[in-house]
Amino acid sequence: MQRADSDRHQRPTGHVRLLPWETEDNKPCYLSTDGGGLLSRLADDMEAAQLDMGADLLAKASKVLGDPLSPNPAVRYMGVRLAECLRDALRVAESRGMRLPDPDGEDA
User: What region, left, alpha or beta, does residue 3 occupy, with left being phi > 0 and alpha being psi -120 to 50 degrees?
Assistant: First the structure.
């Protein structure tokens, strides 16, 4: 499944990796790689950090959202942060999905 906004961007062909960050004008960044190298390791580390932050925020958000007396600004803050974490997690999933082998055994 692709992100809903993926139609805005043309996906490069070949062996490329979607990186876990965007350009200054919110376009995806891709890396032509064999899976090794400094930038690939940096991207791996950043993906892991993004997923860890999402898990931590989810635990905190559950408390805020589960309390009917939570003030509106706290609920809004959690909603905004959860949306950011979901965006990051979807990008990680898309990137990892792009790197899975073709089930038909054919390269893209």
Answer: beta
Residue 98 CA: distances (Å) to CA of 11, 32, 35, 69, 95: 10, 13, 12, 43, 5
Helix or strand (DSSP H, E) at 28: strand 28-32
What is the pTM (predicted TM-score) of this model? 0.73
List, for residues 39-67, the tens digit of each pLDDT value.
Answer: 999 999 999 999 999 999 999 999 999 99
3-class SS letters over 30-72: EEECCCCCHHHHHHHHHHHHHHHHHHHHHHHHHHHHHCCCCCH
pLDDT tens digits, 66-87: 999 999 999 999 999 999 999 9
User: What residue has token string 């690939």?
Assistant: 40
CA-only gyration radius of the chain, Å: 17
3-state secondary structure of 101: coil
Question: How are the residues of the chain apportioned to helix, strand and coil, as percentages rounded to the nearest 5?
Answer: 55, 10, 30
